[in-house]
Amino acid sequence: MNPIESLLIKDSKMIMEEVNKSLWNAFETLRIAEQELQRPNEDVVALCACQCTRISAEGFFRSYLLSKSPEKNENESLSDLLDECAKLDSHFSTIDLSCFNCKNTNEKECDKKYCLSVDKVNECFEQTHIIRNLVLSKLKLSEKDFS
After folding, report:
1. Closest Cα partner for 42 from 117, 134, 125, 140?
2. Chain centroid to CA 5: how far?
3. pLDDT 10s per residue in the chain (147 long)?
4. Can you give the residue range of the structural domain that contains 70?
5. pTM for the model
6. Helical ranges in the chain per DSSP H
7. What is the distance in angstroms between the CA of the first residue and the CA of the last residue of the chain?
8. Which CATH number does the domain housing residue 89 bear?
9. How far apart are CA 147 and CA 129, in angstroms?
C-alpha cells in the first residue's frame, strides 16, 4: 500500500468514527425525548421533548452529511440540512419537516421555535424516527449498533 492509500484509509476511519459519534449523540438525545414523552401527558415537559427531538433530527442529518464530506454543518437549520442531504440522495426529498415548523402553531402551543403541545411534539418525534431510519439505511447501519 502506498502512503496516499494509507492516508485515505486512515482519513476514512476517522470520518466513520466521527459519524458514529454523531449518530450516538443523536440516538441519546432521541432517547431523552422518548423518556419524556412516555410520561402521562400532564407530566411531560414538552419543551424538553421538543428540543431533544429537534436536536436529534439535526444530528441524524449531520451524521449523514459527515459521512459524505468531513465539512462541518454547524450553523445550518433543519431545513438547510435536509436540503443538503437531498442534494446527495433524492430519497431525502420525501422527508416532510412541516411538523417542525412551529411558526404555524398558535401562541399557546408554541414558545418561539419550540412547541409546547405534546401532540405536536409527538408528531415531530415520529418524523425523527423516519429520518433516523432513512439515515441508518443509507449508511447501512442498524439501530442495534447504537443501543
Report:
1. 117
2. 32
3. 545 554 445 577 888 899 999 999 999 999 999 999 999 999 999 889 999 999 999 999 999 999 998 776 667 888 999 999 999 999 999 999 988 876 545 444 444 566 778 998 999 999 999 999 999 999 999 988 887
4. 3-146
5. 0.86
6. 3-37, 46-68, 78-88, 118-138
7. 36
8. 1.20.120.330
9. 15
